[in-house]
């Protein structure tokens, strides 16, 4: 690496020193290194506070000062007068020395605060409450589901569990809808084993002992309380629905003896070792003109920084911001269910990859570690890097006496994050012409809905019946990435280059053709921050241009386009989501173009999940129609723009999603394609191929 990786994750020794420093300086908080619940004060997360781009650029490109100061971003579980909060601080400079300090981390949040109230004070106590609630209705669950909870053995394959869906209320606290699931904690298939009993819990109090169970819901009928539910069960006309029973249908493997399956399939090999270069100390990669650094974060996984191609700047940063799944349905669970997966940790849930399956056996594997609650968690082989030759060519041509064919070999940086029921395979693909692709594929278990058997159900309104007592549940996956484009430098403009029909008179057409119906290009500059959707009929090119020009006088640019996968990448179908509030407004369009600011490094924060209606980062305050014109005397904007874009899927699971969703049917990508960036196709210098020539020709 030509420079140090200034975005590298905090090391174990650095995290330990930060923890000790906080305990020394914040002695008045009575911090404990053995927390039992959110009612204790403790350091929850220690990670790198990524340097401001302004500081990093001076180090990377200007041959100026030394590397920017290294700081840690810290989240402390801290009890204030009205309960526990998660509070962000910045600690540095590192390594800890006499000049180090602890400061509130506020400048990266547009909410004006660095804290969020934590509604989950004691998860163990919530589980105890849930168990007690379920035990009180053991007679009902035994009657309707043929099972009860097992407090002594939560792994009991025949036992029930109950899980909540929370909703914030204006007066503070939560209202929870609890749904029963089987078969206990020991099964990975819980999310396709929902049972049709739901209970509403008033959880507005910060004291769990004050929580109360109110309404119950079963088979499309709402009961005012447990007694009313139990009484209805005794009525002769009580309508039952079959329970959702586990069985071989949930198994992810079928070890049956099937013809030809024992014959190994073809595999890819790398006979002479890698052609890319990997500096493991700095996590720096170079390959056929591409150069970049990579780093990890426990909330958002792998990001790439300082991407260059043939010595020219292309992107300062490319990385995940948030992964949202939003459901719809006519039961109390699916009706308001949503997840913001950075809260659960897309990086810390990036587990060890399986060589030969997740990635080719010849790939290079990189470890990952994160620091939480005074422990450093080491995840081996969680990122892979490899070259891959596609089964289709990069280019070919058959001439009169020859044929030329060029292999399509590209570089892949891949990681897999398993957050609950879903496995997201996320990769950055780099092609020999300078194209960069961000691609996501999903697999794992769907989050299914219980299939009710009453006559009031509207068939297929929210999904399909996919087993005896299981229905699919429609949902949107919208996964947000940041692309801080620096096309041949940081001063860029964005245009919409439209293909438009027209009618025009040409002199050379006369007199036979008075007018000709044809088409032409019309350029529309994007002069203010905006959310943009993919155009109808792919009728516009979204291009980020530099002021630099190639040999032919054309502006150097990169085109942004929906890439390979299942159709165009989506945005959220639901308008003004009741559940999400202002926590994920970036999901409302396919992509956004904004001014880049040091005070707006991300589109979301993991703790938005705790405060959806008053989030730490409100994207609408970032995308607020500021001018993208630069060079004028009345603006400080210097032309450094940033793109936020979405990949994902409108997922309507069907019977083929049982047991697991298939990756080839749930993939999507966005590509950044050179547009007049070079003088000719740069891949000609890198590809391997063949030319077949007829003798004597």
From TrEMBL:
User: Which terms does the record give in the GO molecular function aspect?
Assistant: copper ion binding; primary methylamine oxidase activity; quinone binding
**Residues of the Copper amine oxidase catalytic domain:** 267-683
Q: Which InterPro entries match?
A: Cu_Am_ox_TPQ-bd, Cu_amine_oxidase, Cu_amine_oxidase_C, Cu_amine_oxidase_C_sf, Cu_amine_oxidase_N-reg, DUF1965
Q: Which UniProt keywords apply?
A: Copper, Metal-binding, Oxidoreductase, TPQ
Q: Where is this region: Disordered?
A: 677-697
Q: Which SUPFAM superfamilies match?
A: Amine oxidase catalytic domain (SSF49998), Amine oxidase N-terminal region (SSF54416)
Could you name the domain of life of the organism this protein comes from?
Eukaryota
Protein's recorded name: Amine oxidase
Organismal lineage? Eukaryota, Fungi, Dikarya, Ascomycota, Pezizomycotina
């Amino acid at each position: 690496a030509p420079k140090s990786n200034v975005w590298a994750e905090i090391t174990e020794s650095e995290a330990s020193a930060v923890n000790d420093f906080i305990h020394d300086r914040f002695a008045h908080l009575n911090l404990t290194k053995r927390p039992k619940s959110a009612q204790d004060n403790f350091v929850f997360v220690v990670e790198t506070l990524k340097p401001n781009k302004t500081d990093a650029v001076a180090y990377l490109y200007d041959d100026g000062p030394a590397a920017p100061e290294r700081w840690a971003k810290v989240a402390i579980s801290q009890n204030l007068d009205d309960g526990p909060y998660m509070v962000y601080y910045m600690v540095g400079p590192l390594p800890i020395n006499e000049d180090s300090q602890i400061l509130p981390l506020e400048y990266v949040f547009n909410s004006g605060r660095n804290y969020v109230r934590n509604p989950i004070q004691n998860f163990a106590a919530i589980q105890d409450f849930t168990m007690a609630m379920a035990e009180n209705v053991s007679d009902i669950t035994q009657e309707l589901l043929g099972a009860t909870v097992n407090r002594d053995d939560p792994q009991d394959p025949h036992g029930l569990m109950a899980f909540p869906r929370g909703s914030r209320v204006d007066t503070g606290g939560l209202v929870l809808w609890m749904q029963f699931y089987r078969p206990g904690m020991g099964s990975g298939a819980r999310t396709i084993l929902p049972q049709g009993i739901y209970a509403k819990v008033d959880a507005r109090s910060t004291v769990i002992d004050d929580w109360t169970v109110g309404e119950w819901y079963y088979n499309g009928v709402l009961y005012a309380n447990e007694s009313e539910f139990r009484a209805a069960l005794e009525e002769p006309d009580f309508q039952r629905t079959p329970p959702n029973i586990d069985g071989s249908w949930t198994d992810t493997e079928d070890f049956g003896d099937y013809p030809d399956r024992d014959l190994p399939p073809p595999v890819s090999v790398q006979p002479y070792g890698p052609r890319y270069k990997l500096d493991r100390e700095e996590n720096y990669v170079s390959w056929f003109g591409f150069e970049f650094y990579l780093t990890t974060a426990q909330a958002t996984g792998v990001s790439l920084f300082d991407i260059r191609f043939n010595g020219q700047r292309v992107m300062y940063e490319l990385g995940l911001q948030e992964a949202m799944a939003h459901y719809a349905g006519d039961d109390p669970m699916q009706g308001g269910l949503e997840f913001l997966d950075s809260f659960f940790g897309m990086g810390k849930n990036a587990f060890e990859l399986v060589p030969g399956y997740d990635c080719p056996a010849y790939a290079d594997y990189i470890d990952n570690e994160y620091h939480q609650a005074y422990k450093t968690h080491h995840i081996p082989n969680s990122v892979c890097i490899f070259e891959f030759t596609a089964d289709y060519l990069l280019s070919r041509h058959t001439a009169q006496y020859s044929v030329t064919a060029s292999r399509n070999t590209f570089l892949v940086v891949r990681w897999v994050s398993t957050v609950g029921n879903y496995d997201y395979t996320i990769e950055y693909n780099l092609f020999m012409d300078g194209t960069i692709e961000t691609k996501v594929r999903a697999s794992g278990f769907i989050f299914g809905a219980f299939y009710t058997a009453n006559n009031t159900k509207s068939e297929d309104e929210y999904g399909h019946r996919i087993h005896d007592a299981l229905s699919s549940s429609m949902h949107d996956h919208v996964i947000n990435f940041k692309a801080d484009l620096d096309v041949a430098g940081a001063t860029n403009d964005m245009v919409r280059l439209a293909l438009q029909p027209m009618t025009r008179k040409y002199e050379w057409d006369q007199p036979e053709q008075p007018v000709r119906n044809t088409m032409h290009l019309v350029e529309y500059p994007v002069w203010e921050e905006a959310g943009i959707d993919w155009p109808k009929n792919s009728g516009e090119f979204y291009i980020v241009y530099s002021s630099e020009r190639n040999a032919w006088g054309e502006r150097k640019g990169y085109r942004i386009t929906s890439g390979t996968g299942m159709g165009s990448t989506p945005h959220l179908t639901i308008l003004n989501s009741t559940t999400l509030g202002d926590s994920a407004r970036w999901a409302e369009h396919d992509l956004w173009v904004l001014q880049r600011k040091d005070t707006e490094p991300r589109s979301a924060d993991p703790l938005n999940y705790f405060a959806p209606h008053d989030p730490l980062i409100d994207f609408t305050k970032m995308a607020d129609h500021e001018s993208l014109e630069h060079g004028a005397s009345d603006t400080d904007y210097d032309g450094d723009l940033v793109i936020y874009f979405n990949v994902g899927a409108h997922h309507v699971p069907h019977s083929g999603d049982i047991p697991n969703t298939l990756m080839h049917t749930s993939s999507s990508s966005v590509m950044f394609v050179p547009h007049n960036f070079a003088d000719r196709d740069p891949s000609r210098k890198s590809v391997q191929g063949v030319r077949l020539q007829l003798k004597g020709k």
